[in-house]
Amino acid sequence: MENEIKLASGAMVALGVATAALVVMPYLQVRDVPAPARLQPYTDAQLRGRQVYIANGCVYCHSQQPRDRSLGPDLERGWGRASVPGDYVHDKPHLLGSMRTGPDLLNIGARQPSKDWHLGHLYQPRAYVKESIMPSYPFLFSVKDEAEAQREGEQPLKLPPGYGPAVGRVVVPTPEALDLVKYLQALDRTYPVLPAPAKP
Amino acid sequence: MDSAVLSLLAAFLLSIIGLFAFIWSLRKGLLVENPAAASVIFARGEVGRVDDPALHAEDHRSLQRAAAGADGPVADPSDLQARVLADRSSALPVFMFVAFACFWLLLGSVAGLTSSIKLHAPDWLVEQGWLTFGRIRTVHLTAVLYGWITNAALGLILWLLPRLLRTELRGAAWTLLGGALVNTGIAAGIGAISAGWSDGMEYLEIPWQIGLFMAAGLAMIILPVLFTLVNRRAEHLYVSVWYCVAGLLWVTLLFVVAKMPGVHTGVQQATTNWWYGHNVLGLWFTPVSVGAIYYFLPKIIGRPVRSYNLSILGFWTLAFFYGQVGGHHLIGGPVPGWLVTLSIVQSLMMVIPVIAFTINMGGTLQGRMHLARWSPTLRFMMFGGLVYLASSLQGSMEALRSVNAVTHFTHYTVGHAHLGAYGFVSMVLFGAIYFMLPRVLNWEWPYPRLITLHFWLAAAGISIYFVALTVGGWLQGLAMLDPARAFIESVTVTLPYLKWRSVGGSLMVASHLVFVGHFLAMALRFGPVRTGAALFAPARDLELSYGK
């Protein structure tokens, strides 16, 4: 080979084909996908919580894409039906994920609606799942005197026995933790995406 | 026919057209073997002469004797003089990129070891946000991908091109400025990720506002490279030039398209994400590393590459197939089915360039493989080349739906990624740095035994790492697929393997301490007195050292 023009143009054509297939065509195919009727846009608090989810890299251990039954027992595990492009119209950026070091979270809000559970689990996952390897997030909480928390009108965490701080002290969530839990509770795509079959 | 089938057909048609374009260019005069082009890397009369600057004079003579049984031919002095000038023109930028690369390698691998330990010690270092797994893991990825590999690759390109084009590097000052901008971007990106400011997509975490610096920096490196290219004095463009220049153009466009704010949306963003994620390896790390092997391996053993045409076949098939494989990361995901199928097909087509490369290197090395006993650079290159074969074949298999059903979402994928990025790419870059730096600094490596130590620590580390995660990931996948077993079993089954991964990772970090320490010793001129002066050496000293 002796021609730099051939080099540059050939390289660009090759990349162009790949870009057309993996970027442009999907764009044309899914940009006008309508939101399913029962999918709510995120509230401000949920969006802030989503940022906390992104900032702390939850996506590196938790996928948000239950798969079809032919590919795995996602449905049996309670993770929900296989997701469709419409489920993600409000997701910027997408958080599909590529690892399941922990379970899929696309429907965690439906599976585990309890705020107390989520807060306590973020503070110390092993208080709820003994063998969990999820990191604890003490930096999303603060430990205070019980009286002080009461004076400030804050709700302390209800932790399982043995996992709380010393007597007279309580754990209170920061606004980030509260937002994050609001986002997790909002993860609920259990609505149907296909119309019900006509009755015979 | 529905749109999915139509688009699949169109993609196939395009691939076929690409192949025909390639056949056409063969018919235009490339059908005959081209020994002249294959010998561009040698000075006139230099074929048969071994070359490994990482060796001291006496070891170098043993290498020559082991290769040809004689003192070797004498190269044309005017060609050597041109090479000296080429090396001098690129010395400062290359040194800067290698120094940055060493810094990020150390930081990135310590961050990597930290995140590895955190996976089996989840309550370790949890009080600070920046140390949480999700951030320190991303710091690791950013530091090694952009900081270590990209800097080392840029240094390699800037060093190789003037040599291969037989000219001086034009606009070296611009590459210095570009490098400063790129590394400002990397440092700012790592700071942002630690502070919790991230764009949230794998491989693309660096916020786009910071990405602007990196894109501008890359542009400032591309322009001098292209200017050097059009001012070349060599008649043939050696295949390494193809790989390096194309890789540089590709990565810049990839980065700009993928980071464009406000364009990508919903699941299309996911396909773009993996188009980018896989192409960083496929169209940047791989071509540069393959290009490096195509230069260093024949150069060290003093024998031109066996088949120049095979190397060009490898280049074009890599260019056409590799770009489209990213969709295999979304098998089973909520994306168009035709896209996933296309990516699986192209993943398997990747066997062609890999086999072409392997046959070519095997043929070139035939009868001289024992030289790896003498030459440390050759050892790194051979290790990297073999792992390239292994990891590419593994990747093609992994894209098959039946295999992917088990390995998707598990540590198996992480093991595969490290085999490619470390066992292949990083090992090749280590070898290249050992070869380049004595020419850049005009100073020999002060303690050659440290090179051997580095090699064995790194090779043992990545082997333990890879085997542990491959076995552990596979068991994890099987546990996850079995509805009768609780999810937590897929976590507990991996624990012993995650600990072994930390053992392998520790060996790798130790090897980097050896490597960077040796680099510092060389840059600061420790050790016995060697060939002569430093970076800005008088030309006369350089000539003497080249003619040794």
Please tell me about this protein's structure.
The complex is a heterodimer of chains A (200) and B (548). Chain A is mostly helical and 200 residues long. Chain A has two domains: 32 residues; 143 residues, Cytochrome c-like domain (Cytochrome Bc1 Complex, Chain D, domain 2, Orthogonal Bundle). Chain A contains six helices and two strands; from the N terminus they run ααααβαβα. Chain A has a two-stranded antiparallel ribbon with strand order 1-2. The termini of chain A are far apart. The model of chain A has no long low-confidence stretch (mean pLDDT 92). Chain B has 548 residues and is mainly α. The radius of gyration of chain B is 23 Å and the shape is globular. The relative contact order of chain B is 0.11. About 2% of the residues of chain B have low confidence. At the A-B interface, helix 1 of A face helix 1, helix 4, helix 5, helix 8 and helix 9 of B.
Q: In summary, what is this structure?
A:
The complex is a heterodimer of chains A (200) and B (548). With 200 residues, chain A is mostly helical.
Report the total helices of chain B.
19
Helix content of chain B: over 70%
Estimate what percentage of residues of chain B fall within beta strands. under 5%
- How can the largest sheet of chain B be summarized? none
Count helical runs of chain A.
Answer: 6
- CATH topology of the largest domain in chain A, by name, is Cytochrome Bc1 Complex, Chain D, domain 2
Low-confidence stretches of chain A: none
CATH class of the largest domain in chain A: Mainly Alpha
Number of strands of chain A: 2
The assigned CATH architecture of the largest domain in chain A is: Orthogonal Bundle
Overall mean pLDDT score of chain A? 92
Structural class of chain A: mainly alpha
What is the CA–CA distance across the termini of chain B?
A: 69 Å
List the main descriptive attributes of the protein structure presented here.
heterodimer, A: 200 residues, mainly alpha, Cytochrome Bc1 Complex, Chain D, domain 2, globular, B: 548 residues, 19 helices, 0% strand
